[in-house]
Amino acid sequence: MYSQFDVTSWVTPFGLIFIAAICIAWFFARRNAATVGIDPSHIDLLMPIAVGAGVVGGTAIALLLSVDEGVRVRLFAVVGFGAAALFIYSRITKLPFRRLLDVFALPMVAALMVHRIGCFLAGCCWGDVVSGGIVGGVRYPPGSFVYEQHLDGGLIDPGAQVSLPVHAVQLYEAGLLLVMLLLLSRVPWRRLAGGTITILTVCSYVLLRFFLEYLRADSEVVLGTLTVIQVQCIVLMFSAFVYAKQREQQGD
């Protein structure tokens, strides 16, 4: 559960799990593509392009927004830039963009589920302090994000061996994503209009993430009691609702 990422640590549990998550999404996206008549070779081209665009774009946004908390690549920025790469590819190849989104929707949920285990091991995307009750917590060692936050906030004394116990919110999310994946996988999306499963996936995740934010301690509050992620969730939910209504009015 250490979060040191120095230049000598070329192989880390977080890195290996991140690669495994990409491979899982790749595998299932290829299967989805074949079932809707899209040549899986397109997925072989798209996956590295979309992942590369997401990481580069997400890192650029993180560099612009980071002040004193270090560079942390945000999930929604990565997904947004990846979707933009998908759109450009669809225009070049004349493939239906909505159907391409559908092909990637659930595989990306599976990838994020696995990725959250890496987050737990690395100590990033951490939870708030457990205040008691039946829920236990996990403690992180010196050098971890959690430990440094607790030290800076005066919650622990200098020289403390571990942080205060915090919610294992990364594992909570992984478990909820598994339930979400099992439920959405029963939707016959191949027989529905393009984009349907994507809308359901986005709405399900932002709803899940909105409430999980109340147990996280790594996002800044920007509007009342809402964190930046919760504001983004509201915007995404509203955008998905407007998009769905437009499709309904157009008879698509």
Please, could you describe this protein's structure?
The protein is mainly α and 252 residues long. The protein has eight helices and two strands; from the N terminus they run αααααααββα. The protein has helices spanning 13-35, 40-65, 75-93, 97-122, 145-152, 169-184, 196-212, 228-250; strands at residues 221-223, 226-227. The longest helix has 26 residues, at 40-65. 33% of the residues are buried.
Topology diagram in text:
Blueprint: H1 13-35, H2 40-65, H3 75-93, H4 97-122, H5 145-152, H6 169-184, H7 196-212, E1 221-223, E2 226-227, H8 228-250
Antiparallel strand pairs: 1-2
What would the keywords be for this entry?
8 helices, elongated, 252 residues
Give a short summary of the structure.
This protein is mainly alpha-helical and 252 residues long. It contains 8 helices and 2 strands. Helix content is 63%, strand content 2%.
Overall mean pLDDT stands at 87
Q: Main β-sheet: number of strands, strand sense, barrel status?
A: 2 strands, antiparallel
Helices, by number, come to 8
Calculate the terminal CA-CA distance, rounded to whole Å.
48 Å
Which percent range fits the helix content? 55-70%
What share of residues are in beta strands?
under 5%
Query: How would you describe the shape?
Result: elongated
- Strand/helix succession: HHHHHHHEEH
